[in-house]
Write a structure and sequence with these properties.
about 325 residues; alpha+beta; 2 domains; five-stranded antiparallel β-sheet; four-stranded mixed β-sheet; 4 helices; 17 strands; globular
């Protein structure tokens, strides 16, 4: 009988240990403490940053935000490569929206375009060299996204996605297999866009989407590809086009040929479980947020609850032991 009690006690100890280990999920993203800036080097008062800022003025991207509040444009530093560092320069992301297919995930867009998975604001690639975005999806652009080896600390919630047009109509299934990220969508951009998507100035409320583009300097590319092929009615050869973010005209551009290799780059988007984002949980139904308890306090409560459970189990064991002894006597 003594051995049985020892076994039960060991079970109690294991319950406590496993109940408190990993009570806090890994932290993939932490709220940024500083914001990225660029100098407005454009001079055209009708386009780019110089339409909103004086030439030579500093542009600040994103928001530091507020603890417990999660809004479009909030800046986060994410340890995507798993080295334990949250690099404010090269691992900067911006919250854009909640994932429409899973309320437990947030969509964060990278601060820069990439080439072979590494930051690059002066390289450009086609959406699809096959020339038919509506049929192929972003087969060429995908090749530049960070791989699951490069960004081993993050993964898409589902590597197979429904590619949609600007109206939300599903066109094809597309696999991002091997990639740790995907492209931003036309629908996600609407979280901060104002007015008509293809009209100049649509992105004025979301400057963070135009960091490292021709928005600030002629030396950089116009922008980057969105995931969506363009199927706007009345356009000749519509199957040839895909949507982009265009920093020069500050809007989404639906008249970029998918084979264009001169003007647009590839910008990664990651999908992060809200449990892996420091001090924030998103409520996609509300587009704002949602207060969250302090992490340390949450852990303390969990430990306390587990301790109480263990004490109750211990009391039960002692009681059973006492009853057993009385019966024997």
């Amino acid at each position: 009988m003594k051995n049985n009690y020892i076994k039960i006690l060991l079970i109690v100890i294991l319950v406590f240990i496993f109940g408190t280990v990993n009570v806090n999920a890994k932290t993939l993203c932490k709220r940024a403490k500083t914001l990225h800036t660029e100098i407005c080097n454009q001079t055209d008062t009708s386009h780019a940053c110089s339409s909103k800022h004086t030439t030579g003025r500093t542009i600040t991207y994103g928001n530091l935000g507020t603890k417990g509040v999660f809004k479009t444009g909030d800046a986060f530093d994410c340890d995507v490569n798993g080295d334990g560092n949250y690099d404010a320069e090269s691992e900067r992301f911006y919250y854009i929206a909640g994932l429409n297919t899973d309320i437990n995930y947030a969509v964060l867009v990278y601060y820069n375009n990439v080439s072979g998975g590494t930051p690059s604001n002066n390289t450009s690639f086609a959406y699809s060299t096959d020339g038919w975005p509506k049929v192929t999806g972003p087969v060429t652009a995908k090749l530049q996204l960070p791989t699951t080896t490069q960004w081993k600390n993050t993964a898409l919630s589902n590597v197979t996605r429904k590619i949609k047009n600007e109206l939300g109509t599903e066109l094809l299934d597309f696999s991002y297999d091997g990639s740790a990220a995907r492209l931003l969508t036309y629908q996600e951009v609407s979280a901060c866009g104002s007015g008509t998507a293809e009209m100049e100035g649509y992105l004025d409320n979301c400057q963070f989407l135009m960091e490292n583009t021709k928005y600030s300097s002629e030396e950089q590319k116009y922008g980057y590809w969105l995931e969506n092929p363009s199927t706007s009615t009345g356009r000749t050869g519509v199957e040839e086009y895909a949507y982009t973010i265009n920093g020069f005209v500050r809007s989404t551009n639906g008249i970029a040929k998918g084979t264009d290799i001169e003007d647009y780059g590839v910008r990664p988007v990651i999908e992060v479980n809200t449990n892996e984002i420091e001090d924030c949980i998103v409520d996609p139904k509300k587009e704002e947020v949602v207060s969250v308890p302090d992490t340390a306090a949450s852990v303390s409560k969990i430990i306390l609850v587990n301790a109480i459970i263990c004490i109750l189990i211990g009391i039960t064991i002692i009681s059973l032991n006492t009853i057993h002894k009385r019966k024997r006597n």
